[in-house]
Amino acid sequence: MASIEKHGPSWRVIWRYQGQKQRTTWATLDVAEEAKAIVEGYRGNRTAEQVYIDMGVLTPEVPVPTTPTYREWAEKWLGSKTRISPGSRARYKQQFRDHIFPTFGDTPIGDITTIAVGTWVNDLRAVMGSPKTVTRYYSAMFAPMKAAADQGIIPVNPCKATDFKRDQRADDDTGEHKAVYFTPHQFEQLRAAFPERWRVLLDTLVETGVRWGEVTALAKMHLVAPTKRTAARVRVWRAWKRGEGGQRYLGTTKGRAKRSLPIGRDLYDALAALVDGQPDDTLIFRRADGRELDYSDMYNDVWMPSLIAARRCATHPPAPRGEQLAGATGRCRDYGGTRDSGEPCGARVRPGTTRCPSHYGPARNAVSMCGCDGVLVIDQPASWHDLRHTCAAWLFSDPRMTPLMISRRLGHATLATTSDIYGDLMPDLEESAVDAIADARKSAQGTRGKGARRKR
Question: Considering the domain boundaries, does residue 143 fall inside one?
Fold first, then answer.
């Protein structure tokens, strides 16, 4: 970035700033190297006069322009945003308050360096561990600094100059992406374990790839009946959001990616049956009282029990806690029984066993390890969102589907987002590119020389 060259009895430090050559001259090599370190510490974003000032050999005649502190600028930037939801605004405030302002809040944005940002990221990793969580805070730090650079308040965004990669760290180049991709057979095993009432919800998630907030916002008015010339469709035009106070409301989809998705006739008929005879604004998937579904409730009360049931074998059930013991009395803790927190359980044992009723038999989340036919086998926990990942995996496995078509169906703002999330599903497409080029060359070789006339 900066270089040192001998110039007569002195030494010059040379670099470029905003396209213009800068140079400072020093009496000794040691001093020149110190000046060079300053230039590179600012990644070249320093004039020769500023370097002389930094080295203490020049006093500025006018005050050096100051920049607002990060706190002042971030609050001003957030207040100017006109196209973010109340929930997003609340998350920015929380991120600034908890992990950005304590480090950079009182620092002028012009004094924030790439080294400082990189050090802060590493400190976050030590506290949080999760690369995805670190990425969210980095993105919150990045956005106001980008706006400051775009408006010329600072020469460059110091966050952009770091070597940070989304959801990744140097010793884990695959990031934290641990999606579960169900095979069609595994999905049917999972579906069979679900209550009949919720199977259409599973079908909708895996066939459309919509997000949880989108599928639970679908209403009767979003169903488009098939015609002789067109397939049935579902309009994904809205999603559940959270306001600054945590209340839920219906807003636009993520990235404002409204889309109208073709669906199969069987799925359309199943969805239409759920709202038959109901007003147009009736939610397709709803509680008994008609209100929207809550993710946590559905995860704990429906998803997890069904997933565990699919992973248990009737012939080889999970090992039970406790055992039958004639004449056993007393407390669960007397025989080693503990609560989920690990504390000894003081409940009375079930007569003739060594555990209380709550702790007798397999643990709540225990699954069979036999691998028998009919038992769902997956190597990591799964959630509702993994049905969206599964939909993407099935689409990528079909040669008729292009990444752009898949990106649009999933509602990603850009194709780059699809590539970042599902890049591990694309190697076959990359290999197909080799075959495509080879086929094109072969077709040309078969016609080489044809149609060309030699001038006489």
Answer: yes
Going through 218-344 in order, the beta strands assigned E by DSSP cover: 223-224, 233-236, 239-242, 248-251, 259-262
Average pLDDT rounded to a whole number, residues 374-382: 89
Rounded CA-CA distance 254/240 in Å is 10
Q: pTM to 2 decimals?
A: 0.65
Same domain, yes or no: 105 and 236: no
- C-alpha 311/C-alpha 192 separation (Å) is 11
For 8, residues 6+ apart whose C-beta sits below 8 A from its C-beta are: none
pLDDT tens-place string over residues 53-91: 888 876 555 455 578 999 999 999 999 998 888 888 999
**Number of domains forming the structure of the chain:** 4
Q: What would the pLDDT profile of 288-322 be if each residue is shown by its tens digit?
A: 999 999 999 999 999 999 999 999 998 898 888 88
**How confident is the model at residue 60, as a pLDDT?**
53
Could you tell me if 137 and 210 lie in one domain?
no
Q: What are phi and psi of 25, to 5 degrees?
A: -120, 135
Give the DSSP H/E element, type plus range, for residue 257: none
